[in-house]
Task: structure prediction
Amino acid sequence: MEDTGLTREGRLQREKMRLQAAKWFEEGVPQAKLARRLGASRQAVHVWHKKWENGGIQALHSARPSGRRPLVSEDEFAQVAEALKQAPPRTASPGRCGPWPGSAG
Result:
């Protein structure tokens, strides 16, 4: 579905828009007017209308994201991101220049 790349919240918000559009399709509201009301492109509304015509309101529900399921949840990812923000900055440690100790250099 066109939601590829959106967060869970983004997918839910987009689905809510499509379901509202379906109600207005049933009322006969013109697609251009729907696009303005929803802040969506006319092309997106046209695609939603075609899906609605062919599969009803069920066709407008969000599909789960494609691809492999993440190994960490969104909450775990947020925790790691926060921990990284809190970590002290890395400092460069002085390295040794030249040959390894004990090597013939």
